[in-house]
């Protein structure tokens, strides 16, 4: 397909989005990530039945935690697609990148250097 | 088990605002099982504090250590060598653990990271329901194993109050009337006569800290 998607995205592969934990997402922000999004299988198609639902719950939890500490909760998002949807993957990557660019860089990065 | 919930972040942040080096101590037993104060929750809270303090341009150095049980000298001993490196401690154990930790290190300010919420059963992962208030005088034998102290809003020992309403409690229609349920279960088991057993008022012997020494054991002459 030779699809393009923004080069600033670093992919962390997981066996299932159900593996993602709150601390993994928080660590990314702690280390300076401007935004994090989790891409899981379509709802209702999880091989483990509820891995992607669990991931969504955790993403929502992190959203709340980010707001508690004074960051925008919308820096973390969850997307769903099937493994056959390359163009959708690229579209989500672009959408997330544009969205994070509109929010600006993670302010923790600047304060770390200060 | 004892259950707890994480304190609001703002409250924790405010408590430790003047410290630059804080040790966050988790407890690996009850509060770990109820997802409030185990190793993982310590890591999450530390990540939050770290980021919030950086945003405030007031960075903090945080330590994390989770002991098996904070209500046991044997495990608190593990902290003896590290506690000196910190200005203050956050304990994510239940109220017992927090106090026991503070007793062992009386020079160190200790702050609670959780609110202890009682003794509960595990209905499902993350869902806990209180069943016991540890009153010290169990009447479950005659109440068909439904605790009137915990399950009745008024903690009545001898039958329902006037607020019982077709099976629910007057405080909330979603809250079952404990005595209605006791009646139903006793009847089902054919021992409804149990409901006539009179229980005298509780001796309120839980108003001072209780000490329990099991048969076959005694208080050591030199505690600790």
What attributes characterize this protein structure?
A: 114 residues; mainly alpha; two-stranded parallel ribbon; 2 strands; globular; B: 224 residues; alpha/beta; Rossmann fold; 3-stranded antiparallel β-sheet; 9 strands; 25% helix
Write the layout of secondary structure elements.
The complex is a heterodimer of chains A (114) and B (224).
Chain A: H1 22-30, E1 36-40, H2 51-69, E2 76-80, H3 86-103, H4 107-113
Parallel strand pairs in A: 1-2
Chain B: E1 2-6, H1 9-15, E2 21-27, H2 30-33, H3 39-55, E3 61-67, H4 73-76, E4 88-91, H5 95-104, E5 110-112, E6 114-124, E7 127-132, H6 148-151, E8 168-169, E9 172-176, H7 178-188
Parallel strand pairs in B: 2-3, 2-4, 4-5
Antiparallel strand pairs in B: 1-6, 6-7, 8-9
Structural commentary:
The complex is a heterodimer of chains A (114) and B (224). Chain A is mainly alpha-helical and 114 residues long. Chain A has one domain (17-113). Chain A is 46% helix and 9% strand. Chain A has a two-stranded parallel sheet with strand order 1-2. In chain A, strand 1 (36-40), helix 2 and strand 2 (76-80) form a beta-alpha-beta unit. The model of chain A has no long low-confidence stretch (mean pLDDT 94). By secondary structure, chain B is an alpha/beta fold. Chain B folds into two domains: 2-118, Response regulator (Rossmann fold, 3-Layer(aba) Sandwich); 133-196, no CATH class. Chain B has helices at residues 9-15, 30-33, 39-55, 73-76, 95-104, 148-151, 178-188, and strands spanning 2-6, 21-27, 61-67, 88-91, 110-112, 114-124, 127-132, 168-169, 172-176. Chain B has a four-stranded parallel sheet with strand order 3-2-4-5, with helices on both faces. In chain B, strand 4 (88-91), helix 5 and strand 5 form a beta-alpha-beta unit. The mean pLDDT of chain B is 94.
């Amino acid at each position: 397909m030779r699809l393009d998607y923004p080069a600033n995205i670093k992919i962390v592969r997981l066996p299932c989005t159900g593996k993602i934990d709150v601390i993994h997402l928080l660590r990314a922000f702690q280390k300076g990530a401007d935004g994090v999004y989790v891409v899981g299988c379509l709802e209702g198609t999880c091989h483990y039945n509820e891995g992607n639902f669990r991931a969504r719950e955790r993403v929502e939890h992190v959203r709340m935690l980010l707001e508690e500490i004074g960051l925008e909760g919308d820096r973390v998002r969850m997307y769903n697609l099937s493994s056959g949807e390359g163009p959708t993957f690229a579209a989500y990557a672009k959408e997330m990148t544009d969205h994070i660019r509109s929010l600006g860089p993670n302010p923790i990065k600047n304060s770390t250097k200060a | 088990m004892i259950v707890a919930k994480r304190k609001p972040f703002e409250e924790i942040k405010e408590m430790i605002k003047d410290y630059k080096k804080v040790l966050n101590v988790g407890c690996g037993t009850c509060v770990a099982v109820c997802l409030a104060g185990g190793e993982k929750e310590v890591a999450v809270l530390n990540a939050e504090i770290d980021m919030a303090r950086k945003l405030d341009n007031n960075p903090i150095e945080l330590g994390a250590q989770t002991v098996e049980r904070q209500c046991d000298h044997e495990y608190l001993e593990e902290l003896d060598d590290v506690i000196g490196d910190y200005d203050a401690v956050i304990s994510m154990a239940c109220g017992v653990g927090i106090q026991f930790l503070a007793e062992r290190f009386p020079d160190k300010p200790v702050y609670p990271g959780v609110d202890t919420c009682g003794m509960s059963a595990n209905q499902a992962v993350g869902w806990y329901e209180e069943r016991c208030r540890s009153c010290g005088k169990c009447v479950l034998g005659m109440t068909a194993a439904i605790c009137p102290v915990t399950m009745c809003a008024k903690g009545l020992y001898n039958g329902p109050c006037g607020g019982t309403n077709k099976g629910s409690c007057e405080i909330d229609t979603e809250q079952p009337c404990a005595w209605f349920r006791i009646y139903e279960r006793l009847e089902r088991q054919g021992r409804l006569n149990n409901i006539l057993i009179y229980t005298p008022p509780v001796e309120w012997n839980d108003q001072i800290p209780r000490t329990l020494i099991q048969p076959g054991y005694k208080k050591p002459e030199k505690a600790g």
